[in-house]
Amino acid sequence: MDRRRLSRQELIRARRGDGFVGREGELSAFRANLARDPADPDFRFLHHLHGQGGVGKTSLVQRFEQMAREVGALTVYVDESVHSVPEAMAGISARLGRQGSPLKSFDKLLATYRERRHEAEAALAGPDEPGGEAPPSPGSMIIARAGVAGLGLIPGVGPFAGAVDSTQLARGTDRLRGRIGARLRNHDDVQLVLSPVEVLTPVFVRELGEAADTVPVLALFFDTYEATGPLLDTWLRDILFSDRYGPLAPNIMVTLSGRDALDRRCWADHLEHVTDVPLDAFTEAEARRYLAAKDITDPDTVDAILRLSGGLPVLVSTLAGSRPGAADAVDDPSDTAVERFLKWETDPVRREAALAAALPRHLDEDVYREAVDAEAADHFGWLRTLPFVSERGGRWQYHEVVRTAMLRLQRRRSPRVWGERHGRLAEGARRAAEECAGGRALARCRRDERWRELRLREIYHGLCADPRGFLAEALSEVKGTVEYETTVVRPVAETIWQAGEDGDAPEVRDWGRRLTAALDGPDGLAGVLTELLGGPGLDAAERVAICRIRGREHRKAERWEQAFADFDRCLEAAPDDADAWFGRGLTHRYLRNFEQAAEDFTRALAIDPDQPAPSFQLGEVNRLMGRHEQALTLFDRVVERFPIHAPAHGSRAVCLRHLGRYEESLSGLRRAVELTPGYSWALAELGMTYAAMGQYTMALAEFDRALAADPEYAWAAAARGRIALLMGRLDEAVANFGLAVALGTANPWAPARRAKAHQLLGAEEEALTDYDTALALADTGRADVSDVSRAVFLAARAGCLRRAGRFGAAREAVEAARAIAPEELLVRYEAALLTSAVHGLLDAAPAWETLRAGAQEGLLPSDEEGLTGAAAVAVVARCALGDWTGARAAVADLLGDGTPWERLAEAEYGLRDLAGLWRDLDAPGADQLAGLRRVLLERMTGATAVQAP
To answer: Terminus-to-terminus CA distance in the chain, angstroms?
Structure first.
């Protein structure tokens, strides 16, 4: 459609606008602003209309929109029918498209988002991925703190993410990312689902600017902003005042209209740019002009309208709507606002229809027919013309002031009719919900937006019809939404409150208030379930179910004691509740209580052998305990019965690797990736298998694939760095370990190994900083770090201090390490080097002798996963003692086939350390030392060349 051509609806609105009366000052200012050049400093690009309900905000916004269209502007009207930022952008794009300015790239990306979100929701129904609790990444911390949970995808959190600790929520986000990453095909799709606003908005802003380039002004009007402001505030502010989403066209003008003042927490820094437009009731002069424009001039009638309306525009408009010609009933004793609204409607059928149609919260023609008596069934068209009925998102609703008054009148006038009408509406909603369900299970229905809407309608009218009788069913629905679709718990709670408020049912109203308060409280969903345990008519089975779900929510929030208490309550009351055994087992697993977890999973499996989750999790805990044969047997059973269970294929393959069955391991992991393309965990485990086979180049390639699938996979980044370090690709190792640290890894070995790579590159200061980082991470408690690891980090840090000549600080670090793990290899090795540096090799000889003796007797640990291996210590100890024959033999052992570059480098680095301590550079031993270093350096150069791609 040509945007210059007005639709029939727009022509109708324009005719209404021609009769617009009042608000001359506001209209004049807006008209003058439209005439300004957007580059003019006086051009106002952000207006905020605000005032009480019924004050005429919507009418003025619509008049503003008409004025903008008259000067050739593109305009978009948005109201409370949008429930998220993506919906707002979609609505704006659709309206621009109807005006001939489609946002094509945005629409295409939006369609992809909707498809991928549907796939992501399906992914949440699957089993947990294998592996322990991953630490939260910075990306997930940002999502947590920004309330990305509002997406409704993070199980157990929903729209009240602010009540949950951000680290806990971030862990949930990381688990969610893993589940979605396993389902979707690439990282871009994962980011689109997890961060739709961040991905969609830059494209939206760019194309919005392109549309604005074709017109004098592009005007966006956000009406009923009191409802949408909490959702849109930050997004709109960032579009208007930051570069976060790209530059905004200067001729884009935004008008916000709502009851409340702008939230200062969001807008305080930008209020000087806001044109404030407060609206109040009509002045008497404005009201008289309005009535005159409606041909209502009889003084008594005018006075009656002014007195009854109080100047509130919606009431003035309503009372003038039937164009009364006289005020013969001006002294009518009726004290209800409804009688005033319908005073001059003489058709009793229509009067009653207007009252009955106020019962539903939203109307379409089908709902209207259910609400009204049969003789009024064909009057929906008339109802839509009433001044207090407006369209919102394809549905109609009464103005709140009018609807509230009509509800009170009907409730007092005839409680019986009130109950019958609401009962009829509840039954209609129930039938429609059954038809929508189509035989699907409730868990699936709750993911259907249309079904949810019908169910909320049934709950509302059921509570209005029979507050006591229907309350138990409404509370049961709260429990069901907590269990299966956490994002809609709040709408159910608010519906209960609204029904109690509209039906004047204190018990129902109180339940709605309690449930909503619990959602916003520190326990979130668990608090809601606690409230439900006090609900009416609960039997033992329902109490068990509520406790079990609450245990799950406590576990997700890492409130371990409360989780165990709830699962124990369930099992005491229902020893055969397989889900409770499974839930308690998962709690044990997350706490790494693997034996107890195995016992609980075994009990769950005995009760319900047909479920894959207990078998899989039992295999997982056996795998994590190193019982790979037992785990393999369990995973075999899972894949036999559920051949498309990708995590089981992956975990089975990891067991095969640990059993040395590498080719079978590779085959199983490839099958897991085939079942779930982009399965980053399985791709990383492929890398680990190739590394175990000594095929380091292939391992790096698989880690690259894992990181391409999930660029925020900190563990994969660290694992790739480990292989790069083994191969001598030090710059890559530094970069990979750095990425893991930047992504928020909780594993202190990542910065520790980056420190080692820095040392081998000669960057001692950077190495010292990394060891400090490793020690700090070890102290956070975010990862399970042994005392031996802490001692290793302290000893390595002491080496950096020693080489910097800071012997006192080095001594303190060594003593701290000795206090923790005195027999640890690196602790004893660094103590010997420090004594040699401070007192000379002769005084350090006993320490070196102990290390040599241990090497000869095979007592030194291999320390394959540490920072310095036993082979390097054996070489350095012999050199320190002048045992050149033994040193050459130890170097010869190192030069055997298959020795990684890193092991050669450890020995060369140790000899380099020793050379710096050699007192007499002309002594015979110095030449021997230099010769051994040359041999090692030559082999290191060759090894790097062979391993290069």
So the answer is: 58
Sign of CA dihedral 457, 461, 464, 466: negative
Tell me the two tokens of residue 505: 């049912």
Closest to 66 (Cα-Cα) out of 26, 103, 101, 31? 31
**Can you tell me which residue has the tokens 């009688």?**
339
User: What is the tally of helices (H) and strands (E) in the chain?
Assistant: 48, 7
Would you tell me the crossing angle of helices 870-880 and 924-947 to the nearest 10 degrees? 160
Question: Over 691-720, what HEC string results?
Answer: HHCCCHHHHHHHHHHHHHHCCCCHHHHHHH
3-state secondary structure at position 105: helix
3-state secondary structure of 50: strand
Using CB atoms within 10 Å of the CB of residue 441, give its burial: 0 to 12 exposed, 13 to 18 middle, 19+ buried: exposed
Note the pLDDT of residue 341: 64
CB within 8 A of 327, min separation 6: which ones?
Answer: 298, 300, 301, 303, 304
Closest Cα to residue 340, out of 325, 351, 356?
351
Q: What is the mean pLDDT of each run of 10 residues along the chain (949 residues)?
A: 50 50 84 94 93 78 93 92 90 94 94 83 51 43 37 36 41 54 64 89 96 96 90 94 94 91 91 90 83 82 75 74 50 42 76 93 93 92 83 81 82 92 96 92 86 94 96 93 87 94 94 93 92 88 93 93 96 94 95 94 93 93 94 94 94 96 96 95 96 94 96 94 93 95 91 94 94 91 82 94 94 95 91 93 92 72 65 92 92 84 91 80 74 90 56
Please report the DSSP string for 621-655 in residue order: HHHHTT-HHHHHHHHHHHHHH-TT-HHHHHHHHHH
pLDDT in tens, 581-601: 999 999 999 999 999 999 999
Q: SS3 breakdown of the chain: % helix, strand, coil, rounded to 5?
A: 70, 5, 30
CA–CA separation, 472 and 537 (whole Å): 7
> How many residues can be counted in the chain?
949
Q: CB 897: neighbour CB atoms within 10 A?
A: 4
What pLDDT score does 782 carry?
74
pTM: 0.64
CA distance 802 to 814: 10
Question: Which pLDDT belongs to residue 81?
Answer: 81
Structure tokens that stand for 591 in this block:
């706490």
The helix or strand, by DSSP H or E, that contains position 54, with its residue range, turns out to be: none
Angle at CA of residue 659, ends 655 and 665, nearest 5°: 55
- Local structure of 224: helix, strand or coil: coil
Encoding tokens for residue 141?
A: 């911390």
In one-letter notation, the amino acid at residue 555 is R
The alpha carbon of residue 709 and the mean position of all alpha carbons in its chain are separated, in whole angstroms, by 19
The tokens describing 650, both together, are 């992956």
pLDDT of residue 404: 80
Give CA–CA dist 910/878, Å, rounded: 12
Q: Identity (one letter) of the amino acid at 157?
A: V
* CA 404 centroid distance within chain: 37
Within 8 A by CB and 6+ apart from 536, the residues are 471, 472, 475
